[in-house]
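ok so for the tutorial part 2 we go from a plain amino acid sequence to predicted structure tokens. step 1 is just haveing the sequence, like this:
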Amino acid sequence: MALQNIGAGNRDDAFYRYKMPRMVTKIEGRGNGIKTNVVNMVDIAKALARPAAYITKYFGCELGAQSKFDEKTGVSLVNGAHDAQKLSALLEAFIKRYVQCYGCGNPETDVAISKTQTIALHCTACGFVSDVDMRDKLTAFVLKNPPEARRSSANKDKKEMRRAEKERLREGEAADEGQKKLRKETRRRAPHVASKKHGSSEDENGDDEEVQWQTDTSLEAARQRIHEQLTAATAEMVKLSIAGEPPKRIQKQQPPEATKKSKESNGHSPAEAAASEAHKALTAEMKAELDKKGATPRRLAAALAAAKAGPQPAMDALFEAACGGAGRGMARELAKRAAFLGAVAHDAASQLRLLRAMEAFCGRAGADASKEVALAAKALYDADVVEEGCIVCWYEAGLAGAGRASPVWKNLKPFIDWLQSAESESESNE
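step 2 — the prediction. this is what the tokens look like for a chain of 430 residues:
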């Protein structure tokens, strides 16, 4: 099936990702009963995310002819003989009025009908709301036949199943906390036991909180602990006393050049200091853009694209600005600015950059941010900012990379397990 770009303005863009099939028409009948059948109307409507009845009715309104779309058979008929070129021009006009966003031009819009019986297009790419001209003839048909929700019922059931699973996990955690409190209260009231004999009944129950651990103080054990805890350079500076004397520290004279290098390694290099200052300046710029009066997701996306630091450093600065620079409460701040983040994370590559920015921010902010990384990822997932596949891909790459020891992956693992278990349950139910 031949494909073409959606929108006449994107006709020559070879890398445009929004495609639709070329229109195929067929003339049927003769005389007064001649009709034009749009053979692939269902495929065109699916690519535009609009009901096929809307497009068929629009052709009839513009041509002044009767039109009909059969929902059961998927046949689209317009009275009269009309060539494919003429109908394609009308289809472009329909796309411009009822599909493309009036702000960014992308076809990722949803038709919404307000309480005052007006029609608007909500863009999921930039967040812009386009008001449709109500003087158009098709608007009356749209008001009488409102569109169905864009999301399928299967996806809604999947979300509901995951929410129910989350509630079950929360109730289980609450029950575990109650059991822990009960055990602590029982131990507090019971007499204190100083030591336990090997093989006692409490050891069989697995309660080892009152076991008194002993440390091996032999010379060989001390040597082994030193080599485990100290580096190869510092282990040579410590000498154990075999005769029971206190340990002595042997300091080696280092040449001036080695001393100078060690001092430089303890601080930041000029390049790192310059990069840190550039990051702070870019973060302040993104914070000002977010807090600006009348700020919109479209303007933020334009400011991010115009940043000279590169896609990933710019995303790092935007993420830190969206979080307010603090690790605690990160998930709450991200949920507030989900529309802005969704405008800049419009594809898989930008979503991965956003997740890497969260990883880098947790490394800078410390333990408070690392503890909330699962909640932050859940907030971005619930707001449809990042997809499930991007989250899992980012997590697996982090475990396989050089920073696999980061606490981010340990705190994120329960959320990843929940995602994968919910996915497998939904697939088995289907």
